[in-house]
Design brief:
16 helices; Receptor-associated Protein; 3 domains; single chain; mainly alpha
């Protein structure tokens, strides 16, 4: 992080400048070592941040992180030390951002830091939950095993997410094709019929008139409509980036028909799996909950788990606060209560995760099975409208002839 400072030097003169440091305390120490007495110190955000732009341009995909964990486990299992393994993976990295991050991680490891500590400084790339698990693996001396477990779980999670995206992409592609077909019809095909009808002094059929009217309106106001949609899209994007907007968007995602239920089950399964992994590793719930909340993408569920954490700290346990919120399904609440009473919370959480993952997969398959005939019917309706429009126009013209 870059800090902007105002300070007095040893001669009593006011100096201004910028410096890079990991924290405000470190920046103050660096100024002290240089003989400066700070007067003002605050973080500096440049108008154009090259590093932030590079991180947006060269994003690290989860598959690349999974491959990194898998390769690191193989190298460590073969007897290669951590520094040498990181150096080899750093040289082989093709993603520019990942290569830069691995270089920084390698420098910290060579400086004496643990791998988990170095990775935890990049939470947007290496999830805090997994970084903490790696720290436990380092302490227990089974880092390779933990790396493989994390890789397996990330691969399974990525496969489920890919299936969901594929199912949602089908309607988008179908609507795009339908839009292009109708646009070609009213822009190029029907106008030629209009000229022919005018030359033959024949009145166009009603459906052809409607389609032509849509085409004329699109020509007159198309640019304004496009700009309006573009501005609305940008405003919506900016709104979603705000905390309140993101919360409302995530709430909408959970309430969507069919898709919302799949997302809800998938998120709960992921949370139960992470809780089970962390709890089995020996972490107390007071440490598990903050790590869990930090890794939840849906802000609605994150706020719900944060409320559970606060009640848990007050001594209400885990299942009792969950029962107050409908986001936590009855089966999850009951299994957590059984786990608390029997002292096998990690086992019951793992069972809940498997059950919800199976339910999410079943509902996703049902959704895909419903989407395909629905899209086929939609395409059939579009093609039918196009055919009826053209046939009515040609029939009226042949009748006149």
């Amino acid at each position: 992080m870059v800090y902007q400072y105002v300070a007095y030097n040893e001669a009593g003169e006011v100096v201004k400048g910028k410096l890079s440091a990991t924290s405000e305390e470190m920046a103050t120490q660096m100024l002290g070592y240089a003989g400066y007495q700070p007067v003002s110190l605050k973080s500096y955000t440049p108008l154009f941040d090259a590093d932030k732009f590079a991180s947006m341009l060269y994003q690290v995909k989860p598959a690349e992180v999974t491959l990194f964990y898998r390769q690191l486990a193989m190298l460590l299992d073969s007897g290669t030390d951590i520094a040498s393994s990181l150096e080899l993976l750093h040289e082989q990295a093709t993603n520019r951002l990942l290569k830069k991050v691995l270089g920084a991680v390698l420098a910290e490891v060579r400086g004496g830091s643990q791998l988990s500590v170095a990775l935890s400084k990049y939470p947007k790339i290496f999830a805090p939950v997994y970084a903490r698990l790696l720290g436990i693996g380092e302490q227990a001396g089974n880092l390779e095993t933990v790396l493989n477990q994390v890789s397996d779980y990330m691969e399974k999670e990525a496969a489920a997410g890919k299936e969901t995206k594929s199912a949602l992409m089908l309607p988008v592609i179908t609507f795009a094709i339908a839009f292009v077909v109708v646009a070609l019809l009213i822009t190029f095909i029907l106008p030629s019929f209009t000229k022919l009808y005018a030359s033959l002094d024949v009145e166009m059929p009603p459906i052809a008139k409607i389609m032509m009217g849509l085409g004329e309106q699109a020509k007159k106001h198309g640019v304004l409509v496009f700009l309006g949609l573009l501005i609305a899209g940008v405003l919506l994007f900016v709104y979603i980036k705000t905390p309140g907007g993101r919360y409302n968007f995530d709430k909408l995602m959970l309430r969507l028909p069919l898709v919302g239920k799949v997302r809800h089950l998938s998120e709960l399964a992921r949370c139960c799996r992470n809780m089970s992994l962390l709890f089995r590793a020996g972490l107390p719930l007071t440490e598990v909950m903050p790590l869990l909340i930090q890794g939840i993408a849906n802000r609605v569920l994150a706020r719900a788990f944060d409320s559970v954490k606060e009640d848990m700290i007050k001594g209400e346990g885990l299942s009792k606060p969950m029962a107050k919120n409908k986001l936590f399904l009855p089966m999850m609440v009951q299994m957590v209560r059984v786990g608390e009473e029997t002292g096998s919370l990690e086992i019951t959480l793992q069972a809940v995760a498997r059950s919800y993952e199976m339910q999410a997969e079943d509902k996703m398959r049902a959704l895909i099975g419903l989407i395909q005939p629905a899209m086929t019917l939609f395409i059939g309706l579009v093609v039918g409208v196009v055919c009826v429009t053209l046939m009515s126009a040609m029939t009226a013209m042949y009748g006149k002839l």
